[in-house]
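go over this record:
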Amino acid sequence: MGNYDGLTPEERARITEIQDLLIERFVEQKTALEEGDNVRAKAIGQEIKALQREKQEIQEWATT
């Protein structure tokens, strides 16, 4: 994890939720790739990027 002292409990909870979602999405993406479903894998990849952006934005709030 990281140092989230500047975040509210709700923001910390959201980061934890995002991390759990990321794990799920990475597994889904791996499965899609193994099944040869590149379209689905690409869509999941976009979800992963969106979740990573949201997590980064929340982390940046802690430093401001």
